[in-house]
C-alpha cells in the first residue's frame, strides 16, 4: 500500500512539474505591441515584414493595433487601452503629440515604450528607433544636386504638418542652400495617393517652369508618376527625387520617370526596438548599467535616446532588388 501511495505521489509531483514547466514556457514568450496609425498605407508593408521577422527571430508575440487612417487620437486611445494588459513593451510612431500623454502614462506604469519611424520632442518614451528624417531630407537635396545640377525651379509635394515630412523638408532646403535652386511651389498630398495625383497635376499645370521635384512622403512618388502620365509629360526634362518604395513608385523609376527614391530601412526598426526592450527588461533596476548610483532614483534611462536606421538610394541600377514580388510576403501581423 505504501508503495502505491509513493508511486501515486511521484506521479502527482511529476505532473505538477510538467504543468509548472509548461506554464513557465508559456510565460517565456514576451508580449509586445505595435500601436500606430495609417496602418493601411502601403508604406507599412515594410513594418509588417520587420515585425514578422522579429517575432520569429526573438521568439516574441507582437500585436498590431491602431487605426487604418490618419487618426492620432485613435492611436492614443489604443495605447491607453493597452496599458492595463501590462505588455512587455510598446512601439509607437508619432506624427504629432496626441499620443504623448498615453506614452507617459504607460512609462509611469513600468511599460517601456519606444517610438519608431517618426517622432516629436518631449515624447516621454525610452528612445527613438527609425529614420533621421532631417538627414534623409538633406540626402534628398544632395541627390537632386547630384542628378539635376545646382540650379532650377523646384516643386515640393508632401504631407504638410506631419513631423517626419516637415523634418525632411527642412533638411532638403538646408542641402540646397548656396545653390540656385528656387522653391516655386509646395503641393499638399495628405499622404493619400489620389490626393497626390490631383495635387501633382495642379502643380504641373500652374508651374510649367518646374525642373526639379522632391516628393517627401510615400504617396508622392505614385502621385507624381501618375500625373506625369495623365498629362503626357513623360518627355519633359525634370529631375524627380521621392521617398519610400511603393511598387508603383519603383515602376516609375524603372521607366525613367522618377530618378531615384530615398528609402528608409523600415523593416529593421521593430527588430532593434524589441531587441533593446528585451535587454532593458532583463536588467532594469536589479542589474542596470552603472550610469549613476541608482539610475531609477536619478531619473536616468539606460537606453539610447536615438537609434538611426539610415536610408538607401533606389534608382534604375538596383530597383529590381526592391520589388515586392522579389521580397517575402508582407502580411499584417
Structural commentary:
This protein has 333 residues and is an alpha/beta fold. The chain has two domains: 30-131 and 266-311, Rossmann fold; 133-264, 3-Layer(aba) Sandwich (Rossmann fold), CATH 3.40.50.2300. 44% of the residues lie in helices and 18% in strands. β1 (31-35), α2 (45-58) and β2 form a beta-alpha-beta unit. The longest helix has 27 residues, at 2-28. The relative contact order is 0.13.
Briefly, what is this?
With 333 residues, this protein is of the alpha/beta class. It has helices at residues 2-28, 45-58, 72-82, 100-108, 133-148, 163-175, 193-206, 220-231, 247-255, 268-283, 295-298, and strands at residues 31-35, 61-65, 89-92, 113-116, 127-130, 151-158, 180-188, 212-215, 239-243, 260-264, 306-308, 311-314. The strands form 2 sheets. Strands 2-1-3-4-5-11 form a 6-stranded parallel sheet, sandwiched between helices. It has a 6-stranded mixed sheet with strand order 7-6-8-9-10-12, sandwiched between helices.
